[in-house]
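Two entries, shown back to back:
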Amino acid sequence: MTSPASSRPLADIGVTGLAVMGANIARNLARHGHTVALHNRSAGRLDELLDKHGSEGTFIGARSIEDFVAALKRPRRALIMVQAGAATDAVIDQLAAAMEPGDIIIDGGNALYTDTQRREKTLRERGIHFVGAGISGGEEGALNGPSIMPGGSRESYESVGPLLESIAAIVDDTPCCTYIGPDGAGHYVKMVHNGIEYADMQLIGEAYQLMSGAAGLSAKDSAAVFAEWNKGVLESYLIEITADVLAHTDAATGQPLVDVVVDAAGQKGTGRWTVKSALDLGIPVTGIAEAVFARAVSGARELRTAAKELAGSPLAATVAEVFPGLTIETFVDDIHAALYASKVVAYAQGFDQLAAGSREYGWDLTLGDLATIWRGGCIIRAQFLGRIRDAYAANPELPSLLLDPYFRDAVESAAASWRRVVTVAAQLGVPVPGFSSALAYYDSVRADRLPAALIQGLRDYFGAHTYERIDKPGHFHTLWSGDRSEITI
């Protein structure tokens, strides 16, 4: 309900930007006993929220930024839930102009972490705290308990942390929210979370493509497989909803919905940001990169139409036709193993990037804490994350998840099936860039020798870039255009 202006209390926190995510976060806060100030650029959404949900708690509606700020307790805490980019900057400028030193602005959108670093620095110089909070869980999570990744000063977290923890998802009595680190750390972690999400969905998509195109299973039968998989080590939100989507029938045509949806996947940028950052850091996140590129290929409609006549393996063939000794049941089990092993690689790469980003920016991220808060609320929530938390609890300096005993055994036991799936897919012409790149990464990191030795020789030949030797220290160059003797650089 909205309190009369003459008697209403000051709000514990304010939310500006009342599209679905912002409205649901505001309702979540109110349901947990917090008085919430509300503001939206257009008053219609404010009125709609109060009309439909005003009875869920104590709300204070504000028609202007000035009234919105005036309705907040000191230190004022204002959560921005607007589109990332210029719109966020505009709201920040308006809020900062009406605020005082010690007040706190929280950006709950999917902001680029470098923007968050810039904003935090600018506002810090004015004495205002800025918190970049990654929020995952979609509309349902925002209302019923998301995973929240807040970055900023420790002092600001002491003020906003209890509020955010109160509305976060709870797993094993632990809120899926914790202090991440300074300046852009929260949004960086959310960015990599989304990158991992890209990889996870791509791998699930490839598993379905193999079931449908190679094993010949119907969407309904594939749904049953995913529902069964959700009872074991692959248990996760994404596997659960995959079963739901595949089981859904289109009302207009009577066909499985998945068969009438255009096969071009959209993206909003966080996956690309993740890959760009990984490239800058020199961290191979091949699983995430392949997922981003796969979406780009899916959207290249004209190219795909023009390329349909290209020669190659028969895209319509099935496992039974080409590999008569391989039963459908065995092949589906192989897909399960390949999906799990590839998932381990994708998460290992994502956590490698988080560690590298932490070193680069001095954030001191605690990787086990991230796995802990991702166990509930967020899109990649899964049983699997408990294993990752345990891995970092056992060894906080773990060089890679692939070296944790549990994950090492899991991947090694899946290797034969994983290789068989990639081989079958290649023979049948079924694209599995996620599965195959994950396997290539796994083989690369465990290889005794890589072709990089030849690459270094080539670089030295045409550009005198030098090379190192395995038998003595230093940097060397061969006089390729001279007598081909070696010199020390």
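entry 2 starts here
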Amino acid sequence: MKTLEDGGGKGGAKVNTWVDSMRASSPTRVKSTVPSSENQEQSPWILYHPSALSMFDQIINYSKGKQIVTFLDYDGTLSPIVADPDKAFMSKKMRGTLRDVARHFPTAIVSGRCIDKVYNFVKLEELYYAGSHGMDIKGPTNSRGTKKGNDQAVLFQPASQFLPMINEVYKILVEKTKSVPGAKVENNKFCLSVHFRCVDEKSWAPLAEKVRLVLKDYPKLRLTQGRKVLEIRPTIKWDKGKALEFLLESLGYANSANVFPIYIGDDRTDEDAFKVLRSRGQGIGILVSKIPKETDASYTLQDPSEVGQFLRRLVEWKRTTRGRPSQNKKLTS
């Protein structure tokens, strides 16, 4: 994930760097960069990052009977990217698929959104949720029928002391960005998201300048960039990769050779988790993207539809090899 703090010192230079990065991560001519069906097999990027669907048998072979643990981003992975982030609804079919996956494997949603928002989209209490880029981690409750995500057991909140500051900056940004049509500021509890998906590209620089001026007074917050979104987070060393490690440790797999994590995500923030898997030499990262991107993931899937296909194949494989759902290992706080 690119941290947008090293933009050259001066305010104007820094904003220009931010805008260049915003433009680079927001391609406007997707069709020209997508490998066609005729030459896809010859594309160097596809050779190094093959489809997880076509390589499914190889992935299963790599797991070699180890405990598979699934980690999933939400936006752009389980649900399509939409103009209004409040309407990023997941399909009923995907929800059913997730329920089946969780019956066989420990499963976590790792998102930049706050837990309550993700839970309201997913509505599955048997999953683990790591919101705010892993700064708010909760696990399933023992009682059945729980309907509220905030009723789940809190496992870890490393940035609790930043809550007053986050809320203060949120109010300021909402007021400051009112003059930029299409801009939307989202409070994700332990981090903030400034969405520019619906902002005209000519207004990106003014928007970035407004954000820069606000953050100038808050050195304990840092700015990073996601998919058409500017993310504001505490300066603590915590990200989706750290959240993945924490969850594996809580499951009892910190130093185990008998675990095979599978992390699926579409955004720059997910690269932190892909890097962790590469450094561990365990499991695989799967990037959800239709266009070539620089990534530490080993495989690719094109969109949420293919993510669903992959997860259903995973469930079917488990059913046919075991005959019945395995008992998930439960997290301990």
